[in-house]
Amino acid sequence: MRAVLGLMWLLHWLPLPVLGRLGEAVGSLLFRLIRKRRHITLTNLRLCLPQLSEAEREAIAKRHFQVYARSVLERGILWWASEARLKKLIQIDPAVPLASIQAGPTILMCPHFVSLDVAGVAVMLESSLCSIYTEQRSKVFDEALRKGRSRFRSVKLFSRAEGVKPIIRAMREGLPFFMLPDMDFGAKDAEFVPFFGVPAATLTAVPRIAATTKAKVIPVIATILPNYRGWKVSFRDAWENYPGDDMIEATRFMNAYIEQEILQAPAEYFWAHKRFKTRPPGEASLY
Questions:
Q1: pTM value surpassing 0.85
Q2: pLDDT score recorded for residue 150
Q3: CB of 86 within 8 A of CB of 70?
Q4: Taking CA atoms, which of 31, 139, 175, 227 is between 20 and 30 Å from 244?
Q5: Structural Rg of the chain based on CA atoms
Q6: Element (H, E) at 15
């Protein structure tokens, strides 16, 4: 793993157009070689985008592998490039909502697009934050990830195993919560809520934490700019009257919102994840 990190560090000095094209070439190769992830990706696309032809879904899947591999290599820029270089490459539209963050508890809801780490950096360039992350098997990579995600401001990263109590304390101390709510972590603390019409085990943490802390929820979406110019991070309007009294309905609203964002840049969503791994009782695996 040290060798991989060393390679990432060396590559981060390359101009983004060169690094981006290299990542896309690697992704095209992986699309052919990694049959298991290709199968997961195409299965997810068949379930979520049945209106498309098989050829259209395969084109999205191939492009997804390209941008995902590219995002891995480009992470070196996020972890080691200068603040000045990052500000040139990250287009923020509109600005980081500092006034809203400073006005009271805030959840920055960031779906799993491949450039989600860019969204985190965009916030860190302007504000401290707190977040939950999954500990990596490699201690070397885990340390690099933690340093990379907390090098500009005071960032509190909590392991998923610690639960939500540390997050709530940090929010009450004034830190916005940067949250990634749309992966399958099993049935615990989740409800089966439709995702593109398919029941998906979905964490109810966003509405529950919003209700507990009286936090506003501001979606933040990170996508790739054309022509290898960098990335765009968009802060949407805070959800009104959210979450209400029905946590399941609030979770359903969140999934529907994410669906609409995915349709704007379908290849950039994290389709290689087993989003429907956990099934309702009695239902067979979809993979």
A1: yes
A2: 78
A3: no
A4: 175
A5: 19
A6: none
